[in-house]
Amino acid sequence: MADELYLENIDEFVTDQNRVVTYKWLSYTLGVHVNQAKQMLYDYVERKRKENSGAQLHVTYLIAGNLLQNGHMCHKVAVVREDKLEAMKSKLSTTASVHVYSIQQAFLKDSSPLYNTDYDIVKTNLHNCSKFSAIHCDAAVPRMLPDIPRAQTSLQGSSQRENDTDVPSTPAINGHGPLAAKHSLQQHKGIMGMFAAKAASKPQNTNKETKAEAPGVSTASSKPPTKNNIINNFFGKAAMNKLKVNPMVEQPKEEKDVVKPSVAVAEPELNPNPVAEKPGKRTESAGIQQKDRKSQMKHVDRSDNKEERDPENAKRKRKRIKQLQSDSSDEEDVPPSPTLEEEKASSPPPVLALKTELEPASMEVSVGGRKRKRKRVLKSKMFIDEEEGCMGKAG
Amino acid sequence: FSAQAAPTARGLLSPPSGEPPTFPRVPVLGYSDCSAPFQLGERSFARQYAHVYSVRLAAMRPALEQRARRRWGNDVVVRKLSELQEGEKCCVVGTLFKAMQLQPSILQEISEEHNLVPQPPLPKYIQPSDELILEDELQRIKLEGAIDVQKLVTGTILAVYGSEQDDGRFLVEGHCLADLPPPLPWNGPSSDRFVLLASGLGLGSGSGEALLSTQLLVDVVTGQLGAEGEQRCASQISRVILAGNLLSQNTQSRDTINKAKYLTKKTQAASVEAVKMLDEILLQLCTSVPVDVMPGEFDPTNYTLPQQPLHRCMLPLASTYATLRLVTNPYQADLDGVRFLGTSGQNVSDIFKYSSMDDYLEILEWTLLAGHICPTAPDTLGCYPFYKSDPFILTECPHVYFCGNAPRFQSKLLQGAEGQRVLLVTVPDFSATQTACLVNLRDLACQPITFSGFGDEDED
What we know:
The complex is a heterodimer. By secondary structure, chain A is an alpha+beta fold. In chain A, 61% of the residues lie in helices and 9% in strands. Chain A contains 17 helices and 5 strands. In chain A, helix 9 crosses helix 10 and helix 10 (227-245) packs across helix 12. Chain A is globular and about 45 Å long. In chain B, 22% of the residues lie in helices and 23% in strands. Chain B is α/β, with parallel strands linked by helices. In chain B, strand 5 and strand 6 form a beta hairpin. In chain B, the strands form 3 sheets. A 6-stranded mixed sheet of chain B has the order 2-13-14-15-17-16. Chain B contains 11 helices and 19 strands. In chain B, helix 9 crosses helix 10. Chain B has 2 domains: 27-42 and 184-253 and 267-450, Purple Acid Phosphatase, chain A, domain 2; 49-110 and 122-176, CATH 2.40.50.430. Strand 3 of chain A pairs parallel with strand 19 of chain B, so a sheet runs across the interface. Chain A: Keywords: Cytoplasm, DNA damage, DNA excision, DNA repair, DNA replication, Nucleus. Chain A: GO terms for molecular function: DNA-directed DNA polymerase activity. Chain A: Its main location: cytoplasm. Chain A: It is found in: Cytoplasm; Nucleus. Chain A: It comes from Grallaria varia.
């Protein structure tokens, strides 16, 4: 065992780095039991004092024991400076424990640096904060991760059931497919099912409500680090970003988004890499989110336009997927994006719909994703404004 | 606690020796949560509060009649107010109402005729001119005589013995409360086991003095602090109960209500940071010991009693551990065979405001003797409009009865006539006193545990 190594380490921490070395900080840094850390500190102090090398060391001790206070025998635990140690010991009727709490070069006016050091080191080690402790609890086991998402989906399920009194809940549950990482087929069905029930406002309302909790749920579930949750988190973040970037996204855009997933799912061969499938799922759900958010503003006319815009929506959707990925610093996805653009450029026939104005705008720009997104937003805003101007105030 | 630790006190003042021991936490022998009556399911506020009182009276009447017979003889006449005859000595059971002039009343505040400025909150609202009125299902009658007007509070069910006078008042010769409820069998552990009671952590207060003490508390319980003996004793702490006010009162101010929207758009409620801090502290505790968290007056949950548990989504880190239990206020549970019952202190502090009793322990004992956790609800203390049954009536005598957020630590072992043995504990406010309580389940002994750092000035 490298006996002297820890002495050198402590020496380095205290004198060279001028740190406040508490027993807890030392225990985490060196990876040793807290009691060993306390003993190491004591050993260091003793040797340094013997050497009398002139370096000033200030030591604080922890003392605990019985103290008669207000008529009760109370157990007192106190952190004291070295000079007050003996005074405190004499006050206590019995001493239960005394050990070194911290070593530092500077004279401490109060105990807040001690607290800050401990706070920082515990914060960085939150998940094994009892690893070096002297007490091990068998009952303290983190709950199995599936329990938590299951609880959440059951929460969603139950809240859906509360909301949908008479509306079939299959679309709603399927709308939550991505969160539970269900099969893409179910999502496909779900999207179709949602189109079928599009006219009814109820499922959309429920979706809106349940989707409103979905981001909350996904962010809550981001803590337990599993792949599913990373995807959900990303999806949640991406969806949130999208919603923020397009605060005024009106129906045509959403409908595009909604239709895109169906096409995207229908043509999985075009995107062989598995990464694209996840974005497919993500964007589907994002589409669902957006659609649900603005569900009240839906007019029947839009539906006709929507069908026509299906294919290009898919393409645009795919473009956006790629942009998103490039945003998230996935290097490998950047090269494929130009190729996708070419693909989209090469299939103009279905493009002839009303959205030609938007299409060329997005096609021409071949730089990074953000510009394209921004352009599209502006254009669509104008488009909608004109339209609404034509249609007059709907009231 | 300390005596066992003494022998190895100086053990850690030595160079590192062999492998330091790790102590296993004492396993939970038995735990059952009995707070089901305090959990509200579907809530409807469409009912009036009068039902609470009628249910309370109906439930406690039999017990009180029994007590009255025991006290004043088996042949004492128990009458309802409508059957009273003038001059006849009898016993009446009813609900008490104290008419207080200083009691804040919303009607007075909004009365435009009076043009009154709302009354500032006072520490006590009692006055010599207060009057006691006894009500039963149909009538009410003013009380006078051998009865302590200042001490009693509205909502208490009691039995008075006396006679009606010709001026319509009831002259009281004696009165009695429901007294201690029937005892529970004792199944306590045979070896030392401790439960740590703490309340009033007061996170988010903006002042860091209590933070080191909170950290020391967590370290002692998780076994990081102290020499080996103390760590072994700490491993016998089988549970930690945090009795309310985890957040400080400072987190309560909501700028969003008072200020204009454009000023408060980007600001975060102070309680958000405080809850994050709470989550980290609870995570450290949960990895080592089962914790029960009760909400308090300043915590983000509903205001009326019974307060529902904090939602687990607020504590994402800590709620992954099964050792964290979020419970209601009031809280009742069987821990290792010992029945605990306690609140976060709102009931006691409310009685304090409307009664001449000054001592929190005295008030706590009085509520136990009155057979009801919070008699002042719903009059001055917010409460859910129950109509089927009043869950705050004490039907069984707990072994440990505590209240949180008291100004100082007090404890008393009460012995009842039917063999009840209750430990009354007033858990002090940790942010002010840096004191928590350790209850030994084997013999119901209670010891306060204080933490301190050092500051600029040295106190002795």
